[in-house]
Every structure is written in C-alpha cells, then in structure tokens.
Design goal:
Layout (H helix, E strand, L loop, with lengths): L3 E6 L3 H12 L4 E7 L3 H11 L3 E2 L3 H6 L5 E4 L6 H10 L3 E4 L7 H13 L5 E3 L6 H12 L6 E9 L16 H4 L6 H12 L2 E9 L4 E3 L5 E3 L5 E8 L4 E7 L9 E6 L2 E7 L2 E7 L6 E2 L12 H9 L10 H20 L3 E2 L6
Parallel strand pairs: 1-2, 1-4, 2-3, 4-5, 5-6, 7-12
Antiparallel strand pairs: 7-13, 8-11, 8-17, 9-10, 11-12, 13-14, 14-15, 15-16
Length: 347
C-alpha cells in the first residue's frame, strides 16, 4: 500500500472535525506536519492529534520533502497561493471550500492543476445533500419530472439580524473575496442536478454596514447579508436563489425542482426528498434505499485517487471554477445592475 504523508496548512474547525480524523482512519496515511496561523496554535493541533511536526510557516511546509500531499484548511484568501506553491513543489492538494476569492484565482488554480496532471487536485465538496444526490440524479435521468421548467433555492437564517455581533471572516471581503454566505455551496449542489447556469441577474444588500474586528476597530462591510438571484440554466430551467442572514424565523434551507410532469422538494435538516406527480394532491417523502445514500468520504476519495484506485468526483477543480464564476457573476450583476452571461470572459 502506497503511504501518503499529509501536511496541513491551516487547521480550522472543519479540518479538526473532519479532515484530520478522516485521514487518521485510513491505513497508510501519516500526519507529518501542520502550519497554522501561529506556532502556538499549530502546537495545540499537533498535540491534540499526534501530528509529528509543527512548521514555522506554510511555505516551509509545502516545500518539505517529508510531505506528499497538502490539505489546505485556511480561509479563501490563501487557497490560490498555497495551491500553486504546493503543485510547484510536487504535492497533491485537497483544498477547503470555497475554492478561491474570485474567478481569476480559480482559473489560476485550475491551470496549475492542469500543468501538473500527475498530482491529485480536489476541492472539499458541499456535503448536505450527499444522501439524496444519487436519487435526485436518477429521477432526473429517467425523465420522471418531464421537461425541467423551474427551480427555487432558499438558504435563510432562522435568527434575527444582530447589529452588535463582531466581524467574522465570512463578512470580510479581504479574507473571503466574492463568496457570499452559502451561495457557492448551494450552486455547486445545484450543478449536480441541473448543470451550470448560462446567465444570472442579482440584487443584494448589506444591512449591517459596519462591524468591529478582533481589535475593536469598526470595519466597513461589503459582503452582502441578503442576496436574491435569478438564474437561467443551460438545461432550460429558470429559477431563483435567495441567501440571507437577516431573516428572523426564516426556517431551514430547502430547494424545489419543477418539471412539466412532477415536482421535487429537497430539505437539508435532516436531508429529505419529497416528490409529487401530475394528478397528486400533495408531495410525499421519497424512501432513499441505503445503497443509494451517499455519505462523507472526502479524505478516502483523495487518498484513493493518489493511490490510483479511483478518480476525484467531489469536487473537481473545473467544477470549482464554475461555481466561482457564478459567485463572481452574482457580485458583478448586483454591483452593475445588469445581467451577466456565463461562463465569464477573461477580464
């Protein structure tokens, strides 16, 4: 069995909760090193999980001959430079979502991956519909809905707006770029079912215009806390997407797919699929056979791909580029007040 020596650049919540335990559970995977935001935080992670070495900085880690593959668990602002440096040092890359700050960075990451085809390059996927995805795909492939006509996605906060909450990285454009709440995650999921969009138009707003950062300074906020999007998909369906962190008692996330002969409703907490056909009076829950239920296996897929045992499916860099193009198109549309065609032209 081919050993895989892992290094971790950034060890945030998802890395500690999912990636490190996931890699620890795979035979032949060695946790060799970590480079976190500070040496002290890196030492805490190394001590907690038995990682052999704490590196002074990420550049030292990606250049180390002791490491075969890098898991990037930083905020999006680091994803592009770390990915490219890892490739140039002969390292496989598993990069946390969202892929990048913007579409240009995503294209640069994809070009780097294509220039190093012997290396595995994978983006951590959107996981909340894994249980349902195969069944949804089968229903659509069978034509059970008839012609695909429309869709809706709504991801809303259940809490009322908090004007006093401190600034987080998700609200900081210098750290998150054009990523807005769960928009990229949902669009990645939507592409699994309907394919990509060909044009979008959006309206957005920033209702809390300033927040205090870690040192108490007031910072201007440019990342929207509410956005409404209309998208025209290549499959012919047109639909709306709403993302909001200011809709008190707004309920959980859900999506609908409407066809000429049937309707699907997808809820995420817990993952549940509902369906109805022409002549039905209401939607009914769909029983998902156990062998059709997907699950989180990101680390296993990455390691198996390195070992040549399977190919990356969730999520490839080219799909990451598509959702970053969508993300940037939404931002451009809201800023310019116009419809944006996809894929984006070079700019």
């Amino acid at each position: 069995m081919q050993p895989v020596r892992m290094g971790f650049v950034g060890a945030g919540a998802n890395t500690r909760q999912m990636h490190i335990p996931g890699f620890q559970a795979i035979a032949g995977v060695e946790l060799v090193g970590v480079a976190n935001r500070s040496r002290a935080s890196g030492e805490r992670v190394a001590g907690e999980f038995g990682i052999a070495r704490v590196f002074e900085d990420w550049e030292e880690l990606v250049a180390s001959p002791e490491i075969d593959a890098v898991c990037i668990g930083t905020w999006p602002y680091m994803h592009c430079p770390v990915t490219i440096a890892a490739h140039e040092n002969g390292k496989h890359v598993l990069c946390e979502a969202r892929m990048a700050m913007n579409a240009d960075e995503a294209h640069r990451m994809l070009a780097s991956a294509e220039n190093h085809p012997h290396l595995i390059s994978q983006i951590v996927p959107a996981p909340f519909t894994f249980k349902l995805d195969a069944t949804i795909a089968k229903i659509l492939a069978n034509g059970d809905l008839g012609d695909l006509l429309a869709f809706e996605v709504r991801h809303a906060s259940d809490s009322f707006v908090d004007y006093e909450a401190p600034l987080t990285w998700r609200q900081d454009a210098e750290l998150s770029g054009f990523n807005i709440m769960a928009m990229g995650i949902w669009y990645e999921t939507l592409m699994r079912w309907l394919g990509p969009a060909r044009r979008v138009v959006a309206l957005s707003n920033v209702h809390v215009e300033k927040r205090r950062d870690a040192d108490g300074s007031l910072r201007k906020i440019t990342v929207p806390d509410h956005v409404d999007i209309v998208a025209d998909m290549e499959c012919g369906a047109t639909g709306s997407l709403c993302f909001s962190s200011i809709t008190g008692l707004g309920g959980s996330s859900n999506a609908w797919i409407f066809g000429s002969e049937g309707t699907l409703k997808i809820t995420t907490a817990p993952p549940t699929l509902w369906a109805g056909s022409r002549g039905d009076q209401e939607l009914k829950p769909v029983d998902i056979p156990e062998d059709m239920q997907g699950d989180w296996r990101v680390e296993a897929e990455f390691v198996n791909a390195i070992r040549g045992e399977e190919e990356v499916k969730f999520t490839r860099f080219d799909d990451g580029v598509r959702y970053m193009e969508f993300t940037e198109a939404v931002t451009r549309s809201a800023q310019l007040g116009t419809m944006i065609d996809l894929p984006l032209r070079a700019h």
